[in-house]
Write a structure and sequence with these properties.
Distance between the termini of chain A: 59 Å
CATH architecture of chain B: Up-down Bundle
Number of domains of chain A: 2
CATH architecture of the largest domain in chain A: Sandwich
Distance between the termini of chain B: 27 Å
Oligomer: heterodimer
CATH class of chain B: Mainly Alpha
Radius of gyration of chain B: 22 Å
CATH topology of chain B: Cytochrome C Oxidase, Chain A
Helix content of chain B: 55-70%
CATH superfamily of chain B: Cytochrome c oxidase-like, subunit I domain
Shape of chain A: flat
Structural class of chain B: mainly alpha
Largest interface: A-B, 38 and 39 residues
CATH topology of the largest domain in chain A: Ctag/Cox11 (Pfam 04442)
Number of helices of chain B: 16
Strand order of the largest sheet of chain A: 3-1-9-5-7
Shape of chain B: globular
Protein name (chain B): Cytochrome c oxidase subunit 1
Subcellular location (chain B): Cell membrane; Membrane
Helix content of chain A: 25-40%
Order of helices and strands of chain A: HEEEEEEEEEHH
Largest sheet of chain A: 5 strands, mixed
Family (chain B): Belongs to the heme-copper respiratory oxidase family.
Main location (chain B): membrane
Structural class of chain A: alpha+beta
Enzyme class (chain B): translocase
Number of domains of chain B: 1
Radius of gyration of chain A: 23 Å
Order of helices and strands of chain B: HHHHHHHHHHHHHHHH
């Protein structure tokens, strides 16, 4: 092989290696955020947005939107988990608070994460949560229960043809994420979390927990 | 410079000779073909009758997974790399590959990858059981512990493919003989050049997706875990962004092979050489924008379904150009039907059938019915078995006399062809029917109404398997002896590889040939 061939072989090899590295980085660091962005924009998968800062709001009393609530336990999740109300009728623009009921019937302290999903996908842009238990992880001591608050506003710009929104929460057991160390989970759980107030306190304390993005 | 091969095992361990490495790739891929074939026969034996007879459902799932992985990454891909090693330097008049040491390395890491993958069968919890597409969370949350070995095996295979692809691109772009312009290159070289670019683009994505799985499993990330804010559907997008170009990686070199063989036995030059090159490039480009047709049922907006449906159907246009070019090449040719030609003609016919069922699957609303049924299994086996496998077989029969200097036994070759042809159609054609009637894929047991077709399919599978043993025997017999082949081997074949003696000397084109 002549020197010039060897040289150009080296250049091509380096260029192709750069493409390989770039594609690897693209797969791990670009594709997932790009996918999330795409889902945010299109409302695909019913992903709802994060905490909403209410701006000046005009309540549109001329019409009502029905918001239905669903609760699903992910497989093997033993908690009782259900909305206190099956559905509410709200005026667009009006801030409404509802609650979900959760009870940990097991004899061990557990931590849960609720993941929301909303249909129709078109409505995701018009459904704002000002407060949601899904923004935080939910620790519950063995045998205790809690009412979990959710405050939301249906946007006053919601198109007329959207008159029913269904919001579903799936509850995942994430106790395992804290490792085998029982202490780590117990530390999350107040000795007496049977009341909403205490749960709220516990929630606030862990508001700095690595928040799950896009919930 | 010119010296013969080293003696003993060190010849194979330390070789940097493209012919030695090509040979090792081809033998390795044949070994994997037999291993994957055994897995397939376990599947077909279990499905011979309804009910559970031979294996447990858990083991059945491991068989479907391992069959797919071994055939895709162990049999088809290394076989084409082996053909590329043997043929590309000889076809472009180069003395060897551009990066001979890397060539050695990219082969020798493969046996380790597959030893690791196969060893998972003996591990506690069993081998990977989540299908060759390893969808999360089946392959993360619910995976057997051996999944980590699977991930590292895929990393190594990916590294091997990437190195092979870099080597091929560098060889083709840099080492062509004087006068061998790009548009004079044989089509096998062209299709491999394009395939190599596809490999460079998507094998890192495969490495990325298994790395994300690894992190989800061991390092508490949540790429694909909804509880942590991830999304299992993301897995399918990333996987098929790799997966769809991957299916063209397995078929484009096959297009190249038959484009070499058909003109020889039709005794006419290839019809539409330039259009073949452009069609191959268009197929490669389109392969990047159709991935979601594998996942029409995940819940996509209608606009998405339509886009991926039309983009997929568009692929039929360049593919149709190729098929018509092959047919036109044969039209009014002085055709003879030696074994390589038989396999190539069968390729054109059967691959087209696979293409048509692909078009049916591309119709988004209809796909909801076909999704995850045996119709899909029938479709991709029709494009892979008579597509990739038949073309590799044809290539071996076509170039084997050049490689080892002896003619193969034509009668045995034709017997092999007819056994394989009948066997594969018996195996895969009935799968269309049971699939349309609703038989799901990847199940060890099935409803009674599918019994007859499944029994036929199983018998066909064993016939196809037996044909491959005959193939092995024929190849070994040819290497050990037989009628001496002439330098041209065939009647006026096109290409530089036929200008060197048979068998091809250890070093060819140390002085570059002049291409007019």
């Amino acid at each position: 092989m002549t020197d010039s061939t060897q040289n150009s072989t080296r250049i091509i090899t380096l260029k192709l290696l750069a493409v390989v590295v770039a594609m690897f980085v693209f797969a791990i660091y670009v594709m997932p955020p790009l996918y999330n962005l795409f889902c945010d924009i299109t409302g695909l998968n019913g992903k709802t947005g994060g905490r909403y800062q209410p701006t000046e709001i005009v309540v549109d009393t001329s019409r009502q939107v029905t918001v239905q609530f669903l609760a699903t336990n992910n497989e093997n999740m033993p908690w009782r988990f259900q909305p206190v109300l099956q559905s509410v009728k709200v005026h667009p623009g009006e801030e409404v608070e509802i609650r979900y009921y959760a009870q940990n019937p097991t004899s061990r302290d557990m931590v849960a994460q609720a993941v929301p999903s909303l249909v129709p996908f078109k409505a995701t842009d018009y459904f704002h949560k000002t407060e949601c238990f899904c923004f935080n992880q939910q620790p519950l001591a063995a045998g205790s229960s809690a009412e979990l608050p959710l405050r939301f506003i249906v946007d006053q710009d919601i198109p007329d043809q959207l008159h029913t929104i269904t919001l579903s929460y799936t509850l995942f057991d994430i106790t395992g994420k804290f490792g085998a160390d029982e202490g780590a989970v117990s530390a999350l759980v107040e000795p007496d979390t049977a009341t909403v107030e205490n749960t709220a306190l516990a929630m606030n304390r862990f508001a700095n927990e690595p928040a799950v993005s896009g919930l | 410079m010119a010296h013969g091969p080293a003696k003993g095992i060190s010849r194979w361990l330390f070789t940097t000779n493209h012919k030695d490495i090509g040979t090792m790739y081809l033998w390795f891929s044949f070994a994997m073909f037999l291993l994957g074939g055994v897995f397939a026969l376990v599947i077909r034996a279990e499905l011979f009758e309804p009910g559970l007879q031979i294996v447990e459902p858990a083991f059945f799932n491991q068989m479907t997974t391992m069959h797919g992985l071994v055939m895709v990454f162990g049999a088809v891909m290394p076989a084409f790399v082996g053909l590329a090693n043997w043929l590309i330097p000889m076809m472009i008049g180069a003395p060897d590959m551009a990066l001979p040491r890397m060539n050695n390395w990219s082969f020798w890491i493969l046996p380790f990858a597959f030893a690791m993958l196969a060893s998972t069968l003996l591990m506690e919890g069993g081998a990977p059981n989540f299908g060759w597409t390893f969808y999360a969370p089946l392959s993360t949350t619910y995976a057997p512990p051996s999944v980590t070995f699977f991930i590292f095996a895929v990393h190594i295979m990916g590294a091997s493919s990437i190195m092979g692809a870099i080597n091929i691109i560098a060889t083709i772009l840099n080492m062509r003989a004087p006068g061998m312009t790009l548009m004079k290159m044989p089509l096998f070289v062209w299709t491999w050049l394009i395939t190599a670019y596809l490999l460079i683009a998507v094998m890192p994505v495969l490495a990325g997706v298994v790395t994300m799985m690894l992190m989800d499993i061991h390092f508490n990330t949540s790429f694909f875990d909804a509880a942590g804010g991830g999304d299992p559907v993301l897995f399918q997008h990333v996987f098929w962004f790799f997966g769809h170009p991957e299916v063209y990686i397995m078929i484009l070199p096959a297009f190249g092979v038959v484009s070499q063989i058909i003109p020889t036995f039709a005794r006419k030059p290839l019809f539409g050489y330039a259009s073949m090159v452009y069609a191959t490039s268009s197929i490669a480009f389109l392969s990047f924008i159709v991935w979601a047709h594998h996942m029409f049922t995940v819940g996509m907006p209608v606009a998405g379904e339509l886009f991926f449906m039309y983009a997929t159907m568009l692929i039929a246009v360049p593919t149709g150009v190729k098929v018509f070019n092959w047919i036109t090449t044969m039209f009014r040719g002085s055709m003879t039907f030696e074994t390589p030609m038989l396999f190539s003609v069968a390729f054109v016919i059967l691959f087209t059938i696979g293409g048509f069922s692909g078009l049916m699957l591309a119709i988004a609303p209809a796909d909801f019915q076909y999704h995850d049924t045996y119709f899909v299994v029938a479709h991709f086996h029709y494009v892979l078995v008579p597509g990739a496998i038949f073309s590799i077989t044809a290539a071996v029969y076509y170039w084997l006399p050049k490689w080892c200097g002896n003619m193969y036994n034509e009668t045995m070759g034709k017997t092999h062809f007819w056994m394989a042809f009948i066997g594969l159609n018996l195996t895969f054609f009935p799968m269309h029917f049971v699939g349309l009637a609703g038989m799901p894929r990847r199940i060890p047991d099935y409803a009674l109404q599918f019994a007859d077709f499944n029994m036929i399919a199983s018998m066909g599978a064993f016939l196809f398997g037996a044909a491959q043993i005959l193939f092995l025997f024929n190849v070994i017999a040819t290497i050990r002896g037989g009628k001496k082949a002439t330098d041209e081997v065939w009647e006026n074949p096109e290409g530089l590889e036929w200008t060197v003696p048979s068998p091809a000397p250890y070093h060819t084109f140390s002085v570059p040939p002049e291409v007019k």
